[in-house]
């Protein structure tokens, strides 16, 4: 049961403002959507200004760590060296790498090469080769706030097909972002990405997706990239989630490494690409908090 909040009571969001000067109007609008059958976000995933500020600051660390990787990544290095770059830079900036020990994940970053779709575990034995494409997925906890973003890197001379896949997957993020605005629906983000990927002849991974982020590593909603138009959760200001489609050159079928129980691979061995941003829904559109 939810106790009704008076107009002059403090807002539920923790802003310290009176309800009537804060979320009252938005709640009434959300309620009208609910009455029309829309799935609406639970209050706990709607962030106030202070929380968005905290996630943005965490995102700055995340961005700086990825910039540092970008400056130092090269053929001949091991993915364990990338892990060490990420771990040391994150800590130098006052953050904690969120992946380390998350549900037993053994390293501070995910590194996924070629047919590895995501959740690759850095290793001393895995050496970056000329022609590889690699996703480096960095997630930071800073002053209690979580941010999450990933980039692709092309190592040396990458085949045209793979390079195009990497570029198109970045464009898919833009296509998804164009759907992020208050009172649009989450399904349109995934639908736009899916339509775009299919139009280029790719397949989109269905089983894994994005997520709410900020107060925890993984929050609601689940962000799929194979959704239908005009379905899914209503987007409202203060929601923060990731857009992180995994787009495959070949089949969308995947399997999980039986030995480490983490790394996801394409069934046919064809390359997969992924970029990830953390995005906030604002009053009139969106703000990227990590990229
Ligand atoms: N950064 C990944 C994501 O985007 C997190 C994977 S969980 C980990 O959701 F433990 F593998 F890091
Ligand atoms: Co993520």
TrEMBL record:
Protein name as annotated: Methionine aminopeptidase
Record text on cofactor binding: Binds 2 divalent metal cations per subunit. Has a high-affinity and a low affinity metal-binding site. The true nature of the physiological cofactor is under debate. The enzyme is active with cobalt, zinc, manganese or divalent iron ions. Most likely, methionine aminopeptidases function as mononuclear Fe(2+)-metalloproteases under physiological conditions, and the catalytically relevant metal-binding site has been assigned to the histidine-containing high-affinity site.
Domain Peptidase M24: 54-283
Binding, substrate: 119, 218
Gene name of the record: map
Cofactors: Co(2+); Zn(2+); Mn(2+); Fe(2+)
Alphabetical list of HAMAP family matching this protein: MetAP_1
Keywords: Aminopeptidase, Hydrolase, Metal-binding, Protease
Biological process according to GO: proteolysis
The organism of origin for this protein: Candidatus Fusicatenibacter merdavium
Enzyme class: hydrolase
List of residues binding a divalent metal cation 1: 137, 148, 276
